[in-house]
Amino acid sequence: MFTGFHSMLRAAGLQVGVGEWMAVVQALDAGTVGPSLHEFYAVARALVCRDEGDFDRFDQAFGAYFQGTALPTPLVHDLQSWLNQP
Questions:
Q1: What is the mean pLDDT of residues 52-69?
Q2: Residue 48: exposed, middle, or buried by beta-carbon count in 10 A (0-12, 13-18, 19+)?
Q3: What DSSP character marks residue 50?
Q4: How far apart are CA 60 and CA 84, in angstroms?
Q5: Is the model's pLDDT at 36 over the cut of 60?
Q6: Is residue 72 pLDDT above 70, yes or no?
């Protein structure tokens, strides 16, 4: 599933080697990343970016790859309840 994301990161100019990518995969396998796109973003960014210069390229690639991903239903309801409060 995330092979396309790896390719997107490489296309963005990030030097994502086997070691960095395996660390991301191991984090997913170990359950370090919960079922949250926000958690995956934070962990993957920490493992893939070698310095601050990589942050913008990572953010752009992440946004392009996961564009249109829906929010989990409980979060949508929580946001709607919060917005409806006076």
A1: 87
A2: buried
A3: -
A4: 32
A5: yes
A6: no
State how far the alpha carbon of 26 is from the alpha carbons of 22, 55, 72, in Å: 6, 21, 24
Residue with tokens 């919060």: 82
Q: Which residue has the tokens 């070691």?
A: 19
Distance of CA 37 to the CA centre of its chain: 6
Residue partners of 5: CB distance under 8 A and separation at least 6: 61, 62, 65, 66
At residue 70, the pLDDT reads 56
Contacts 24+ apart (CB under 8 A), 20-23: 20/47, 20/48, 21/48, 23/47
How far is it, in rounded angstroms, from Cα 49 to Cα 14?
8
Q: Is the pLDDT of residue 71 over 60?
A: no
Res. 33: pLDDT tops 70: yes
